[in-house]
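Incident log, entry 3
Record: G-protein coupled receptors family 1 profile domain-containing protein (398 residues)
Problem: checksum mismatch between cached and fresh output.
Input:
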Amino acid sequence: MSSVLNDSLIIHPPGFYIIAFETFPNISVYIIFLAFVYVVTLVFNILLIYIIACNHCLHTPKFMAVVNLAVIDIVLNTSTIPSMIKTFLFKDNFVPFNLCLLQMYVYYAFISMESYSLAILAYDRLIAICFPLRQNVFNTLSIMSCLIGVTWVYSLGIVAYSTAIMTRLSFCNSVRVFSYFCDYAPVFRLACNDYTLQWSIASTSSMVNLMGPLTFILLSYVIILVTVFRMKSVNNRMKALATCIEHLVLVAVFFTPILIIFLIGLYVRSIDPDQRVLSLSLASCIPPCINSVVYSLKTKEIRTRALALVKRAADEAVADAMTRLETGFFNVVVDCGIQSLEDRFKSLGEVRDKFGVLQNFHNLDDESLTDQCALLGKTLTCGEEADSFDITRTSSSL
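Fresh output:
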């Protein structure tokens, strides 16, 4: 059932059907791979954020930018991978119209932030290598916070407009989206009316949000290389370039496939849907997974503190185990001691019951003495009848 808006000119369907990997072989293996990617993304990025947050010496502009990238990576993969897993497990590929727009908004907002976050890291390297004496002026925590804030506001704002104009389209025919999520271009191409505005916004924002940061990154590294090769010491050159390796890896992994897939998706319609979905999912899901791994393993400060954190956790686990072992051993010893004392007191009680009566024999008359001797004889003989002659003789002697 469709909802008709604006005097029957705009038709919004209840939702869309996400058609991904319809003929893709071994889709279960690929979904398992994406699930693994998502788990690695969560674990390493959360670990990265925790290490930086708990170490005040890492509260620097560079690591603020790293935390920003880690947050973006978590949200970016969360916007797509869980929905793919849900579709595969429950065979439910229907997405309500508003939820589709929300997924579209989150994905494109954070994919845009991803490119700008890499540009911010390039700015950090540019200032650190080319202007080391002015780093406290041009690259402070306040300046880094402003840069991050501006990119967030811009990305969220421009993508909000791009998503809002999707409501002007009328979907009166097919509602099958040939992608693995509510992708922008495959959705607006299902519209019955003119989508020139949406196409223009998509192509322009893609060029600006991808080519803009990439151009800045390339120019930054040109300046960095010029500065590095002006250094007289080869050792200083190598140290300067070594600080850029992890960032260059992330730039190559992110921009190369994203640019190719997005541009082909916008300008070429003859691409095979399964190939496009596979390429796009890999291009958008792998970088957030690699980013945290690269920074965790390659950056010395993070690696050192991560190892220290693991060592501390292991030491605490061993200490806790030893404490539990000692406590258990002490409890066993105490229990054994208490049981031994109870047995000893029980034995003493039996002795008292058997022989305690003797201390009062000198105060008894003959009849009472005879009765007590009979009772004592029965006790000592374990309940057997005592010889009356022996009892009488014993009482007489006493």
